[in-house]
Amino acid sequence: MNAEDSGTTVLIHDPTLRDGQHAVRHQLSAAALRGYAEAADAAGIPVVEVGHGNGLGASSLQVGRAAVGDDLMLSTVREALRHSKMGVFLLPGWGTSDDLRKALAHGADIVRIGVHCTETSLAERHLGFLRDAGAEAHCVLMMSHMATPAELADHAARAVGYGARAVGIMDSSGHFLPHDVGERIGAIVAAVGTGVPVIFHGHDNLGMAVANSVAAAEAGATIIDGCARGFGAGAGNTQLEVLVPVLERMGFATGIDLYGLLDAAEFAERELMPAPPVTGSLSIVSGLAGVFSGFKHQVLEEAGRAGVDPRDVFFELGRRQAIAGQEDLIVDVVAELAARTGETAA
Amino acid sequence: MNAEDSGTTVLIHDPTLRDGQHAVRHQLSAAALRGYAEAADAAGIPVVEVGHGNGLGASSLQVGRAAVGDDLMLSTVREALRHSKMGVFLLPGWGTSDDLRKALAHGADIVRIGVHCTETSLAERHLGFLRDAGAEAHCVLMMSHMATPAELADHAARAVGYGARAVGIMDSSGHFLPHDVGERIGAIVAAVGTGVPVIFHGHDNLGMAVANSVAAAEAGATIIDGCARGFGAGAGNTQLEVLVPVLERMGFATGIDLYGLLDAAEFAERELMPAPPVTGSLSIVSGLAGVFSGFKHQVLEEAGRAGVDPRDVFFELGRRQAIAGQEDLIVDVVAELAARTGETAA
Fold this sequence. Notes:
Chains A, B: The active site is at 22 (proton acceptor). The first copy, chain A, is α/β, with parallel strands linked by helices. In chain A, strand 5, helix 6 and strand 6 form a beta-alpha-beta unit. Chain A starts with a helix and ends with a helix. Chain A is built from 14 helices and 8 strands. The first copy, chain A, is globular, with a radius of gyration of 19 Å. In chain A, helix 7 (178-192) packs parallel to helix 8 and helix 11 (281-289) packs parallel to helix 13 (310-319). Helix content of chain A is 46%, strand content 12%.
């Protein structure tokens, strides 16, 4: 696709106030939510997504209680937005249909359902509910490096069949290089047809979040995610205020005001985060290994106790295709690596 | 070039201890230099460059006095390196032939001469001196976005004629996108022939430093620069410990040990820098405008005094093709923008 000829519009979807929550253990205050939402609205960012990092209904002892409950989060951001749409996120199992009803009652414009890339059927009931409610439902396939382009295309088409009006992929562990993204987005665009917008959401573990997002747009994705200063866990998400002017320079239209966007990012750096994301060693290793970076704390703890290199643990978890929810594997892998080390030393 | 078929070797050149100095006003201690050089050597990084940020002989009141003089810097790093080569950098005008003699006496293996991209003739005398001394002389064309691919190819060929054994470009203001880099490196490779290694040095203002470096390698560059954690002024340089595994994944060989490299980066984050680089608003704007980010402090000061938006100043400096040494232009531009604002308000 030649953006300069077609003047293709890319719709920017900003999950700073949802995915960014992971970097601060879901502790964003109502004042911080309001301030950023106002700044994003003033900049003309089309969609502002808000919530607990794991989405609607996920605030819990297990993954962390949010400082602000779903009701107050949604009403605060709703009030702050004059032009931007409000987005919410739901992981089936964490959130329920009741959470969806509540979000719609609060005026959520776009509801994203996230599923593991080969488990689209888990989204069927929620997507059907949203379709019947007349709501704008989107579906994102997470950890998408764990499926082939053909599998992703198949699952994307299924999601559309269930009622998703847009569908796409998250590079949850920041594993992709640009040609990987182009290939996968191309396959999905071909499978769902031109009437269904395709989504890309990147992470920066291998320094490729902006380049991957550009590759996605060139392959036909028209909804691209980015967070202010890349706010997110580990290496962070695609840095929004870098992505937007790069897309514009390449001929894509976003409708966003550059100075307003830079102002919003400065607000975010000052008021939302202790410091912008840094790409540290374990973020790089988890990106290379294709492993969920949320394993980091538990890997460090278990590996430290057993005297095993946490980087070896990540690479081994990658070989075993570990996914979120399989934290027990960490214990097994550490024990096995510790035994191997003992053999080598003996 | 298909790296996976050819197993192309990329020689990594690490200017953490020279270009990184800009981020800490040239205040790296001898202990910090020694520690990082030892870690880089242990990781198998082929070339470790050291010096004042502006190179040999540049320590001065005007651009900042280094905490450690050239003699102690060079002897400290020389002692720390067992396998890696020691590189030095010289900007004609800042450094002299005496500085080159001193560096060679200290055992510098590679001497880089940096010139503005269309001023290669300024390097003629130094490159000739180094050729006659039998030293390994390289030449880099700075602010290379200000010249066309054909001009860069012409100047690269001239540098080879003067005695440079390798030649290449620096994306000094972080302005390039990957296709820009591929086009320019391709033109230079064609102009200098296969016997002369071609160099690329990136900056991350537009989030493209790693992607640009990969594009350079794919276009035939075989010497690529990167700094630990991207250590450097503003948005920083290409993040070395991300670049290396990405190049390896794409089939290029670097000979560097990944864990050793990650350890060196952790040492650098802990001992060299107050914090890793962040891509802030003015870094993004200077990258978009193609302006030397070293103007930042003076732009902020002059713009603040006159009540002008510093981002407007950067974009106007970009239109006027301002380069380092033309700081007087900042005052002119601020005065003109202030006058325009006055007219609008009146």
